[in-house]
Fold this protein.
Amino acid sequence: MSTESLDQLSDLSLISDCSYHSDSDQDQVEPVFQEERKPVVRRQKNQENGIDLVEVGGIILISVILTLSVAYLNRPIHNQTTESAPTVTNTTNTTDTFNPTEYMKTLGERRMMKTSEILGDQEKVARAQRVVESKEWSKLADVPEYYWDKFMPDITRFEGVDAYLHKTKQNGTQVEEALYFHPIKFVKINMRGTIDTTWPSLNHGIFDMVNVDSCDPKTECLKSTYQIEKGDLVFEHTFTMDGGQKMFVKTVYYIPAETFI
């Protein structure tokens, strides 16, 4: 076969490897070679076999989204308005819940800090005492009502308080907390102007609430007195039990100097 014939065959082979298609929008004819057709052929084969990776991926994604949506809609919903909350017994008029265990852990440290605070402010305490003395208050009725809830405990001058709390089993309770760290408050209890002492954190008094051994504090076995002494308010309580045994309790209160107007 001549060289010319081989060249013609080669040209025919190139022509047979090309196909043409028309574009409806254009009159141009573009060749599409075999290399460009292979991906299309594979896609067609996959479609003929019923397998399309793109479609499969889309189906899987939709299934995951539907599963998550159903799980979210079926989640348990807690109704806060109907669920019963744990009941906490709180006998104070504050929002704090008294924790006896935590209180006992920190009681010693807190009392030491309170004592140091009072001893460190002796100059202020002395100044407050001088102000009260200058007002010549001799009884609670002389004290303006503005100061009725301003008296703070001076625990450095307490006597018999720990023994009283232990005897009445009130140590480590809100009563001990009120005695050592809270102010007292005076209230009128009748039309005659009788003034009683309460602890706002308890909404009641202390020394007339609980029996001391055989002594009922609502009877004559309890004798309580007070006096304004050198600018301080001093309370003394004496409990007389069976057999003549007595318990003496003394508490002292002062008005901080910065309180005076």
